[in-house]
Amino acid sequence: MGSWEAFLGGLTIALQPENLFYCFTGVLAGTLVGVLPGIGPTATVALLLPTTFSLNPISAVIMLAGINYGAAYGGSTTSILANVPGEASCVVTCLDGYQMARKGRAGPALGIAAFGSFIAGTLSIVGVMFLAPTLAKVGVAFGPPEYFSLMLTSLMIVTYLVRGSMVRALIMVGLGLVLGTLGNDPLTGRERFSYGVLVLRDGIGVIPLVIGMFGVAEILGSVGASIKPEVFQKRIRGYLPNLQDWKDSGGPIVRGSLLGFLLGIFPGMSPMIPTFLSYGIEKRLSRHPERFGTGVIEGVAAAESCNNSASTAGFVPLFSLGIPSNAFNAVLLGALMIYGLQPGPLLIKSNPDFFWGVLSSMYVGNVMLIILNLPLIPLWVWVLRIPYTLLSILILVFCFLGAYSINNSTAEVIMTFAFGIVGLLLRKFGFETPPLILAFVLGPLVETAFRQSLIMSGGSFSIFMTQPISAVFILAAFGVIITAFIKKKPFAKGIESED
Amino acid sequence: MGMGLLIGPVATESQEAKFPSKPVEIVVPFAPGGSMDIVSRILAEYLPQELKVPVVIRNQAGAGGMTGTTAYLRAKPDGYSIVAGNAASLISTVQLTRNPPYDPRKDFLPLGYIADTPFVMTVPKASPFNSFDEFVQFARSNPGKLKGGFSMVGTEAHFGFLSIIRDAKIDVKQVPFTGSAQTTSALLGGHVDWVMKTVPSSMPQIRSGDAKPLLLTHPTRELPDVPTGADKGLPNFNINLWAGLFVLPKTPKPVYDILVSAIEATVKKPEVSKKLESIGLTVEYKNPSGCSALVEEQWRTIAVMIKEMGLKVN
Questions:
Q1: What residues of chain A lie within 8 A of the CB of B147, using their CB?
Q2: What is the pTM assigned to this prediction?
Q3: pLDDT 10s digits, A320-339
Q4: Which of A321, A483, B131, B154 has its CA 20 to 30 A from that of B212?
Q5: Are A249 and A112 in contact (CB under 8 A)?
Q6: Is the dihedral of CA A373, A316, A60, B55 positive or negative?
């Protein structure tokens, strides 16, 4: 109850006109940054940071936080309209969102992305408010062995993502794992497969990979091919999700939000991972898994709510332990210190106005985002009426601008283009890219945690089974493999059921 | 900096007498949001008061700072482009590369050493060790038993970690982590027995009592009672996380002098030190020769560590 009163107190702070203004500025900037591929919220916040030094810290952090969750909202727009993930974590939204747009259902896809993000945002803010200290303890209970087993289970869930041939999907997983090993060995610093090229030392960036394999490959694929712009223009069926859409999306939104929130509290966890997992799980639970990837609304709902709650969950370790779990939170941590606030367990006690004011503002900001985004939907849908030849050039320009802006260098642009060609070839030969991307993101985490665990145990593999949390996940990983094979038959018959 | 050096460039640069006449750029070879980036942004906010032109930041991250620093070598040596550097981008990454693209002692001229922050060794709240001596005693009598963690291989934290092992003659398991967050998390969860991190990133846990500080690279006002490497006879445990500014050696002397004095004046402004201190850095201004001497000294220390601790050079 004390928390409830504190929340109301925070709400009065968040609703002050000045803070409303900063909140709006933040979410608006975030939406724009989210829409533009490559330009992420972290860089934006770092750029804007000096301008906030003179503000009151509550207003400043309200604005900076708004940029972050605003970007998670905006990232879905280009995923749905152009198959270009506005943020890396929105890559899963492309899978069904873009197909929905091609079927004339861009409106409902954008709508469910906005509502799903809103619901996920709300649930995860409540989670941060009431569960942060407890969950933070759960987070640190995961050391390298636990982390390895959790990531291994996640990697097994790749099998749920497969649409066509399992063998081809596993080839893609292998390729993703190989691409993930490029660059400095995370434990010894030795270079791997970098061939003396400086830009390859840090390995391949996830943004060139996803923009290339999704957006650029899509545009290149349309060259010469007879892509009919009518598919976009014909039959635009409504701008908002209908009742059936809501029925289909309810479960995925709630499950996606929970999964995103739980995994989002782990330091170093990219929001992409829970997002892929929630998509895989929805597909596994669905009555019609074969339709995933052809434009089902559940896929968009799960992915968008999951990446939103994962990005909010990053506040759990930040506020309760002073651990920044991702790059954005690291910048925010620096900002808090400049404003004279010390994150960690003492923050909530020593600066309750700050903690509750910022969290309440996030709620207000989510409301603003939905008000801001819904009227934009017809506008975005209208964008699809631009002749595809022209639109595709625009998309390509934004893809390369975004790639350049990652590190102010052409190396990322070249990589993006190269992955565009690779993505196009893979597509032509019937290989799916999602398993590759998930394996690429998970591979380095699995490897690092595996080797850290073995250093800790002195080389004994028993560490994975003697740690109870780790043992549970190892068993779960086996369970996933086994169910993937059991599921095979009912799949073909089109029968559904849990186990 | 003799007279000979002075006369040559002056004549040719007379048309550039009113340096600076356009915006000055600081190349930060690290990602936005890191401590180096924030230091540079704070300077970029106050340097215009001295230089009377805008100062912009350009981040070019990668390869431990080597990507941006290497790209900077191709900049025009006219003083309009400055590079930020530290022990990682200029020393450790260079020494860990077989054919390094630059040598900081020859290819860069320091404009000044701005600020630094010590590294601190911490143990979890539940740890039996309450002092560095207790830790060393246990580690010596139980070789290979303790697990230590540090953030990012090849960085200052790693070399601090190695210098404790070398100078205190202990044998521990070395667990590298891929970021400060993962390191902190492993410490708080008790997965490792001790970690090496910077003071600002350790303070939240130290203040809340979740971590105990045992040893510092240098004294800091935030942790007045914690001994330093020098106090405990560890001669190589002395590399801080620092930030300096550099230009190319061909920069005209008058331009160079303008930049040096502008930076000194900026760093000594009370608002600037206040801001740097708020992110946990201590303003420790050193003039160019002081900065050169420090680079030389740390170059030697890191060379010893790489050789004796068996680090592989790429």
A1: 455-456
A2: 0.86
A3: 888 887 778 887 887 887 77
A4: B154
A5: yes
A6: negative
